[in-house]
Structure to design on (552 residues):
């Protein structure tokens, strides 16, 4: 039986809803008068308040010489978009288009309203999220990336902005006319590429992710000195699930993420077996939904700087990030997941981001449209990448070291790969050479049965050959298994607990590590299932134990 989803209201209504008089009464704090032309929020100012219009008109104006009005709001409507949830800087100016009256709601009051009023929560959350999508689609942006599609730094910078939901305009040095003029104006040399220009004319030359986050104010709203109930390291599915449950149950939660929320699914085209999404969901969509949900409950997210060390011999614990800042926490959840193995090949790093990729998203698919690609691996992620890339690429070569697709690969993927005319499987085969000048140009692979080596003019290799845990930064603080995954709960033997000087009479909780109050969830945990649903489940379960530890 097919169950029909309930009909939804037209998109424009959901993007720009008009509140009913009863709803307006529930938001009504103090109305105030505004005069035509009065600027209520500057572009680039932190999103600290929203305006509900009672009379007159409020315009949202794009920060450009032409001052384009992006949208005008009338009585009953409200301003704001996703930055109201994150507290980041807004992209556009908000100003009165006519004399009138507005209700001004501070961000904290708005979050409280959203958490307590289910009906208004749905209206505001939906509008904020759809508006951010609309801004991205319409290219309303305060950032220009000057770069080249052949440059790995450009790919990294664009991925960082895209995965953090920040719209940007790309000017390609190899294609866009007029770029030279910009280069001259800002005295930019080829060694500075990629370059970021913002509307405040700030120029960042080949910036790190942290420099971009700082310049665009991604973490402005975060007080780094505050002792938090819970610091979560990693914003993949397990970390975000812990954030949603922790914050919704009243904990003061900070999530620290080295790049952008989403984790491994953020680099995947479509997750098709996650409960509740019968047509599948793109990894980035899942991440954006989960992030908005966590922020709605008050969790904060810090992006661009990874955890470097956990000082675990002190109470509260301290997580060291970036340039030595310390984030104090009463409890810590480690959700740093795993990273793809790299091909054991000399010179690999020359081509990473310039022909060798560890993710198959729309961004990479655009780069290899109409060309041949190689995918190394035979597991689920390799299978997903093959099916996805086969829609854009001319031919997809799956280079598989064993005798066939992995037993662990989902049945539906195996069937799609077998049926797809553009996917060719090369079994008992290994990639043995990568050649090129700046960008990958040729790939060699060897048939291990015959010993024959073939070299092909292929410019794109996707390596998806299993993962290693992201635990090197822990520096011996927690007990790990022989592959570097974190041991928890009953997996810790009495000898291991004694060696770690476990200080309590009780044994560790289910997902607790060899340190009281430090938990490990998802792919980083020894014995975990390496699936989105199990990662989400573990992140949620850990919160019950966090409550117990905080009351200990
Ligand atoms: C391409 C691909 C497709 C997949 N498809 C499916 C699927 O269809 N169905 C399914 O069930 N599973 C799938 N999986 C597996 C699934 O994605 C993982 O099991 C799941 O993402 C694990 O979640 P996690 O939160 O534990 O870790 P991860 O997703 O690995 O997230 C860890 C996060 O921690 C961050 N991090 C790492 N180190 C640090 C640090 N020192 N400081 C701060 N942050 C740090 C990382 O940047 C990352 O965002 C797929 C995996 C891949 C790669």
């Amino acid at each position: 039986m097919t169950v029909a989803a309930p009909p939804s209201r037209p998109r424009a209504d959901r993007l720009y809803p008009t509140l009913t008089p009863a709803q307006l009464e529930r938001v009504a704090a103090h109305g105030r008068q505004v005069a035509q032309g009065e600027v209520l929020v500057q572009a680039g100012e932190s999103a600290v308040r929203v305006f509900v219009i009672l009379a007159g008109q409020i315009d949202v104006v794009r920060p450009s010489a032409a001052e384009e009005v992006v949208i005008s709001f009338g009585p009953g409507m409200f301003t704001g978009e996703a930055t109201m949830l994150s507290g980041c800087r807004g992209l556009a100016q908000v100003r009165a288009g006519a004399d009138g009256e507005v209700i001004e709601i501070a961000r904290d009051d708005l979050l409280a309203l959203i958490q307590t009023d289910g009906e208004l929560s749905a209206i505001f959350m939906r509008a904020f999220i759809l508006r951010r999508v609309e801004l991205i689609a319409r290219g309303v942006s305060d950032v220009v990336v000057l770069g080249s599609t052949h440059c790995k730094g450009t790919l990294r910078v664009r991925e960082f902005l895209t995965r953090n939901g920040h719209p940007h305009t790309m000017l390609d040095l190899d294609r866009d006319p007029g770029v030279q003029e910009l280069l001259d104006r800002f005295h930019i040399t080829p060694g500075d590429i990629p370059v970021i220009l913002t509307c405040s004319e700030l120029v960042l030359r080949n910036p790190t992710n942290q420099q971009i986050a700082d310049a665009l104010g991604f973490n402005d709203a975060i007080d780094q000195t505050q002792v938090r109930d819970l610091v979560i390291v990693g914003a993949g599915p397990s970390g975000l699930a812990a954030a949603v449950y922790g914050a919704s149950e009243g904990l003061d939660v900070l999530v620290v993420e080295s790049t952008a929320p989403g984790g491994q699914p953020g680099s995947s085209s479509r997750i098709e077996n996650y409960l509740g999404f019968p047509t599948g969901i793109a990894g980035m969509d899942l991440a954006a939904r989960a992030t908005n949900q966590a922020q709605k409950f008050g969790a904060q997210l810090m992006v661009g700087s990874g955890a470097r060390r956990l000082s675990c011999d002190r109470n509260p614990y301290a997580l060291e990030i970036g340039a030595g800042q310390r984030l104090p926490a009463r409890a810590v959840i480690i959700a740093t997941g795993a990273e793809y193995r790299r091909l054991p090949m000399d010179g690999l790093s020359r081509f990473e981001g310039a022909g060798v990729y560890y993710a198959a998203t729309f961004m990479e698919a655009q780069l290899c449209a109409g060309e041949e690609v190689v995918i190394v691996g035979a597991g689920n992620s390799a299978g997903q990448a093959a099916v996805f890339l086969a829609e854009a690429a001319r031919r997809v070569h799956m280079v598989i070291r064993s005798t066939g697709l992995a037993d662990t690969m989902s049945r539906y993927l195996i069937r799609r790969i077998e049926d797809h005319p553009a996917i060719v499987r090369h079994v008992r085969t290994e990639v043995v050479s990568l050649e090129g000048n700046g960008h990958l140009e040729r790939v060699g692979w060897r048939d291990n049965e015959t010993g024959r080596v073939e070299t092909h003019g292929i410019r794109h290799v996707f390596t998806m050959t299993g993962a290693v845990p992201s635990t090197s930064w822990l520096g011996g603080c927690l007990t790990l298994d022989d592959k570097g995954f974190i041991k928890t709960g009953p997996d810790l033997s009495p000898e291991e607990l004694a060696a770690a000087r476990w200080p309590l009479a009780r044994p560790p909780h289910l997902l607790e590590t060899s340190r009281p109050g430090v938990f490990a969830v998802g792919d980083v945990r020894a014995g975990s299932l390496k699936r989105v649903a199990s990662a989400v489940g573990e992140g949620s379960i850990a919160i019950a134990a966090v409550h117990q530890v905080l009351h200990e």
